[in-house]
């Protein structure tokens, strides 16, 4: 299977311009025989939307002017795209949709909205309320958006729900400079993504964006880790790139024959202990 | 509390890459390709000039020297070294004739007042050159100076974007050395050069090396004042610095608007400056 990571910059609030860039990247991915192309968080709108949020919202359906061409393009290659989803009662979500063969296979609404430090997502967006894996032509997959995978529970739930391909998207602002050769935020994300691949013996695909929004820099460095926790490929830091990497899905079988963490996972025990904790502490 | 050494060292390749990209991106999306910088001969404006020349190409940068009658000749000469080393365009516009009539009108004017007038006269010249040259004004204020409020409001702090505002003075020195700022400029005592013999450290009453370490704990590491004392800083020094940071918050913000309507600029009319670009 070949996966393209579309590590793009976006125009803040200009969905039309961003759509054009998406279609160009999808064309490139097709030329490289990719089966799936993954765009970063809020790839159609830009990240720090603030009061632009309602103006850039779209519905992932064939009658939407932005999703119609994307669904058309998904006839040839599967697409994960980031956008603002508006539900029928006008709640706005940070969302990612999996498009395949002209259909919307899955929509994930971000379940953890960072509202601290430089982040203010909870002020503008509604909290997603579900973490679900879904079937693709390449096996079962799951999507988590940025802060979703800073928490351990969404990737864990996706794993238990059958996802062998974890698709992570983000618009991660670079921060934390020291003598080290990487920003602290970059080192942190790479470390946990490698850890998820190792702990869950699955593929972890991460598409991060690049460019600036005012003084915020987005650091790129998108990665693919295999079920052994090995780095399969990484896009450069800070540079706009479409990186296509090939993964061997049979690696799942070889790794899990050696390391049966999934087989031995005691979900009933976890559930019992969680039930006890939530009853006792009112969590 | 464990007293560990405070390390402000930065990876200069990483910082240089982010800052030159920032300059290119933010000037470009504002619809410009050129920049204007006030070059004092000091390390901060020298670093900003080197970074901007690298980001935009030296032919797209105009360095403006704005000496006053009493300015140190070294300042002009050091600025000249930066101009020659970066290859940027340059112009020298003395402010003496601009400011002296006001000084003559108020013979009792204090050194602080005179310094503020000069800083604001330079701002006027710089923004005029911005329009004439078709370039945005690139700022030269570092993180130490911004936190301590050691600048003139609407004077030397006025700019369109500031690439070095998240670097402490200690880190400015490190990055300046890495990008090729002449050693003479890096080594000399920092001074606003608003009057003869003025130095930053003399006026502030402490060294940048000391205060940068303290500010790093207070701001970046979120230490409480008490934590800083436990980490080995004098209680009076910690108090005085934090009070100075607090008193100067106004210099870091746009003036507050009194809210009357349902939607007010500054409170609930929220868009980035990069809106639509």
Protein model, in words:
- The complex is a heterodimer of chains A (283) and B (277).
- With 283 residues, chain A is an alpha/beta fold.
- Chain A has nine helices and 14 strands.
- Chain A has a six-stranded mixed β-sheet. Chain A has a six-stranded mixed β-sheet with strand order 6-7-8-9-12-13. In chain A, strands 10-11 form a two-stranded antiparallel ribbon.
- The longest helix of chain A has 17 residues, at 15-31.
- Chain B has a domain at 12-201: HUPs (Rossmann fold, 3-Layer(aba) Sandwich), CATH 3.40.50.620.
- In chain B, 50% of the residues lie in helices and 5% in strands.
- Chain B has twelve helices and four strands; from the N terminus they run H-E-H-E-H-E-H-H-E-H-H-H-H-H-H-H.
- Chain B has helices at residues 12-29, 43-56, 73-86, 96-105, 111-133, 143-148, 169-179, 183-187, 200-204, 208-220, 225-230, 235-247; strands at 35-38, 61-65, 89-92, 136-137.
- In chain B, helix 1 (12-29) crosses helix 2 (43-56) and helix 2 crosses helix 7.
- Chain B is globular, with a radius of gyration of 19 Å.
- In chain B, 42% of the residues are buried.
- Chains A and B meet through strand 10 of A and helix 1 of B.
């Amino acid at each position: 299977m070949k996966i393209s990571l579309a590590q793009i910059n976006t125009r803040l609030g200009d969905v039309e311009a961003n759509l054009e860039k998406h279609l160009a990247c999808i064309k490139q991915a097709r030329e490289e025989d990719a089966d799936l192309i993954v765009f970063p968080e809020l790839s159609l709108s830009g990240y720090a939307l603030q009061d632009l949020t309602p103006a850039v919202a779209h519905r992932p359906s064939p009658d939407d002017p932005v999703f119609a061409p994307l669904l058309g393009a998904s006839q040839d290659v599967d697409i994960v795209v980031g956008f603002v989803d508006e539900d029928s009662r006008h709640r706005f979500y940070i969302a990612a949709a999996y498009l395949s063969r002209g259909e919307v296979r899955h929509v994930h609404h971000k379940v953890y909205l960072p509202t601290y430090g430089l982040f203010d997502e909870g002020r503008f967006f509604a909290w997603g309320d579900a973490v679900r894996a879904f079937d693709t032509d390449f096996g079962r997959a799951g999507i988590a958006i940025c802060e979703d995978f800073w928490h351990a529970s969404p990737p864990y739930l996706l794993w238990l729900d059958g996802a062998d391909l974890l698709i992570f998207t983000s618009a991660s602002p670079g921060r934390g400079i020291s003598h080290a050769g990487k920003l602290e935020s970059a080192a942190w994300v790479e470390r946990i993504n490698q850890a998820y691949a190792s702990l869950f013996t699955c593929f972890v695909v991460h598409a991060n964006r690049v460019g600036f929004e005012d003084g915020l820099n987005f650091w790129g460095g998108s990665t693919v880790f295999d079920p052994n926790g090995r780095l399969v490929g990484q896009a450069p830091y800070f540079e706009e790139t479409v990186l296509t990497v090939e993964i061997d899905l049979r690696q799942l079988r070889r790794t899990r024959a050696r390391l049966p963490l999934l087989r031995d996972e005691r979900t009933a025990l976890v559930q019992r202990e969680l039930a006890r904790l939530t009853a006792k502490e009112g969590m | 509390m464990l007293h560990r050494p405070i390390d402000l060292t930065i990876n200069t390749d990483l910082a240089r890459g982010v800052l030159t990209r920032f300059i290119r991106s933010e000037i470009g999306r504002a619809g410009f390709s050129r920049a204007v910088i006030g070059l004092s001969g000091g390390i901060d404006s020298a670093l900003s000039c080197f970074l901007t020349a690298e980001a935009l190409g030296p032919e797209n940068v105009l360095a403006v020297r704005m000496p006053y009658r009493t300015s140190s000749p070294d300042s002009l000469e050091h600025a000249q070294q930066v101009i020659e080393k970066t290859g940027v365009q340059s112009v020298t516009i003395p402010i003496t004739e601009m400011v002296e009539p006001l000084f003559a009108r108020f013979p009792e004017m204090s050194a602080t007042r005179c310094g503020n007038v000069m800083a604001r006269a330079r701002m006027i010249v710089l923004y005029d050159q911005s329009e004439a040259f078709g370039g945005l004004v690139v700022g030269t204020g570092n993180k130490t100076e911004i936190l301590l409020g050691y600048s003139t409001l609407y004077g030397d702090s006025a700019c369109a974007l500031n690439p070095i505002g998240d670097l402490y003075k200690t880190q400015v020195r490190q990055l300046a050395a890495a990008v090729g700022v002449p050693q003479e400029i890096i080594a000399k005592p920092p001074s606003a050069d608003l009057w003869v013999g003025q130095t930053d450290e003399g006026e502030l009453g402490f060294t940048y090396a000391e205060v940068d370490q303290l500010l790093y704990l207070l701001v970046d590491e979120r230490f409480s004042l008490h934590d800083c004392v436990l980490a080995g800083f004098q209680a009076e020094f910690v108090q005085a610095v934090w009070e100075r940071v607090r008193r100067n918050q106004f210099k870091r913000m746009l003036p507050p608007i009194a809210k009357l309507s349902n939607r007010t600029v500054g409170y609930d009319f929220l868009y980035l400056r990069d809106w639509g670009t």
